[in-house]
Automatic annotation (TrEMBL):
EC numbers, comma separated: 1.2.1.27
Gene Ontology biological-process annotations: L-valine catabolic process; thymine catabolic process
Coiled-coil portions: none
Organism: Glutamicibacter uratoxydans
Full protein name: methylmalonate-semialdehyde dehydrogenase (CoA acylating)
Matches recorded under PANTHER family: MALONATE-SEMIALDEHYDE DEHYDROGENASE
Keyword NAD: yes
Source organism superkingdom: Bacteria
Domain spans labelled Aldehyde dehydrogenase: 17-475
Length: 495
């Protein structure tokens, strides 16, 4: 069985004895192993990035951009290969994997605009004969730690921006589906990226802790569950690093009585069960006004029943969950929901599956009459389980969503412009959809939630991404002539 190795200085790097399993989630079999980095291996990657930083920082914008354009070209040509790797290790269906790559490509395209986005500001004659300019410079070695659910897109949210801005990177992808990261780093090397600019280490807590504490690492971009995000934020900042740590989510979709219920049901199914619910922007709670709840639940259940579940390479709608352990955890929530008294409108614990072997499958599950103290409501389940909470008014719906500790994404379904506008204004969530169930911003805006969905204040990609990966420097200058002579210890004033 092969073992996936690290990628340091544009070459494979091996030497670790510890390994982890990479499964094919559709068959349940171990497909290969992945090396798990020791502290020493992680330090080797940091050292490579640290050594490459001065040269890359001083590489012209023209040259950096030319390499980024080439990477974009290669990724566009070969996106099918990357999608196949994602499906093989994550399990999501091929179309969905291609969609993930397309959304990542948007950020590569943004990074091709780096010269424009990195332009500074200039004030001529701020004081007599004095000019002031501000410029943005790279922060240095940037660590990126990513989750299993988007093995290509989430790394692509960060490394193209970091690299275009002149930083060097150590990427530690999820050890559950790590091959996409190596593939992308190798492709970037083919595009002409110099040694040490993008390094990949595979590993777990040992590697993450090294990245969080090593003094050569300047910034940390983390995406994962809320408890680990909190840990990464507090440890990284305590060690003097700039940190953005994106956490978990529980995304609500509020459906008002004037909405087109057929369209709303389509969207709830797409956003609830796409990628088997393993999306940080998945809809996991439908908030329905009492007057339409019966009809809406019936329409959602009728559609969810028709989803074909199976191996993502076979043209089905929904693939398996990432591991057997995670599948069992999600099934445990279904038991807990039944025990707590929620109405099981669709039971996904059994059903026909188009796959070989015994993959990590669950079918779509829908609970109605969910109460806010039930674990199926309070916890992020991260699986194909949709809860319906009934409310008696629009205000009650807004209050419910605002009471959630998470604030990643939310959506309202309505044809009433006034109601939608009030929702946009009052809702305490970072990304809002109006008749759009998964409002992941386009590459030239920025992605980020509020509350327990993000620790740190800069969002990913877009203008905020460039801010995160650069530091502002302001230069005040004049060219001295004899009239500037003389001693004056007063605080400089402008005139
Ligand atoms: P996870 O928190 O288990 O792992 C994320 C990363 O942290 C991985 O690289 C993992 O190796 C590392 N890690 C795991 N345990 C660690 C520990 N004890 N110490 C240090 N590092 C550790 O998350 P996951 O299961 O891979 O991904 C799913 C989670 O990610 C969900 O909660 C989902 O909502 C969240 N997510 C959030 C966003 C967002 O933008 N807010 C996007 C995607 C996923």
């Amino acid at each position: 069985m092969t073992t996936l190795q690290h990628w340091i200085n544009n070459a494979e790097y091996s030497g670790d004895d510890r390994t982890g399993n990479i499964y094919n989630p559709a068959t349940g079999e171990v497909a290969r192993q992945v090396a798990l980095a020791s502290k020493a291996t992680t330090e080797a990657a940091i050292a490579a990035a640290h050594a490459a930083f001065p040269g890359w920082r001083d590489t012209s914008l023209a040259r950096r951009t030319a390499i980024m354009f080439k990477f974009r070209e290669l990724l566009t040509e070969r996106k099918g290969e990357l999608a196949a790797i994602i499906t093989a290790e994550h399990g999501k269906v091929l179309d969905d994997a291609l969609g993930e790559v397309a959304r990542g490509l948007e950020v590569v395209e943004l990074a091709c605009n780096a010269p424009y986005l990195l332009k500074g500001e200039f004030s001529e004659n701020a004081s007599t004969g004095v000019d002031v300019k501000s410029m943005r410079q790279p922060v240095g070695v940037s660590a990126i730690i990513s989750p299993f659910n988007f093995p290509a897109m989430v790394p692509l949210w960060f490394f193209p921006v970091a690299i275009a801005a002149g930083n060097t990177v150590v990427l530690k992808p999820s050890e559950k589906d790590p091959s996409a990261a190596n593939w992308m780093a190798q492709l970037f090397a083919e595009a002409g990226l110099p040694e040490g600019v993008l390094n990949v280490v595979h590993g777990d807590k040992e590697s993450v802790d090294t990245l969080l504490t090593d003094s050569r690492v300047a910034s940390v971009s983390f995406v994962g569950s809320t408890p680990i995000a909190q840990y990464v934020y507090s440890t990284g900042t305590a060690n003097g690093k700039r940190v953005q740590a994106f956490g978990g989510a529980k995304n609500h979709m509020l459906v008002l009585p004037d909405a087109d219920l057929d369209l709303a049901a389509d969207m709830a199914v797409n956003a609830g069960f796409g990628a088997a619910g393993e999306r940080c922007m998945a809809i996991s709670v439908v908030v329905a006004l009492d007057t339409i709840a019966d009809e809406l639940v019936a329409k959602i259940a009728e559609r969810a029943k028709t989803l074909r579940v199976g191996d993502g390479t076979r043209g089905c709608d929904m693939g398996p969950l990432i591991t057997g352990e995670h599948r069992d955890k999600v099934a445990g929530y279904i038991e807990a929901g039944i025990e707590a008294g929620a109405t099981l409108a669709l039971d996904g614990r059994t059903g026909a599956t188009d796959a070989d072997g015994s993959g990590f499958f669950l079918h779509p599950t829908i609970f109605d009459n969910v109460q806010t103290d039930m674990s199926i409501y309070t916890d992020e389940i991260f699986g194909p389980v949709l809860s319906v909470v009934r409310v008696s008014s629009f205000n009650e719906g807004i209050d419910l969503i605002n009471a959630s500790p998470y604030g990643n994404g939310t959506a309202i379904f309505t044809n009433d412009g006034g109601a939608a506008r009030r929702f946009e204004h009052e809702i305490q969530v970072g990304m809002v959809g109006v008749n759009v169930p998964i409002p992941v911003p386009v590459g030239y805006h920025s992605f980020g939630g509020w509350k327990a969905s993000l620790f740190g204040d800069q969002h990913a990609y877009g203008p905020e991404g460039f801010k995160f990966f650069t530091r502002n420097k302001v230069v005040t200058k004049r060219w001295l002539d004899p009239s500037h002579g003389g001693i004056n210890l007063g605080f400089p004033q402008n005139d």
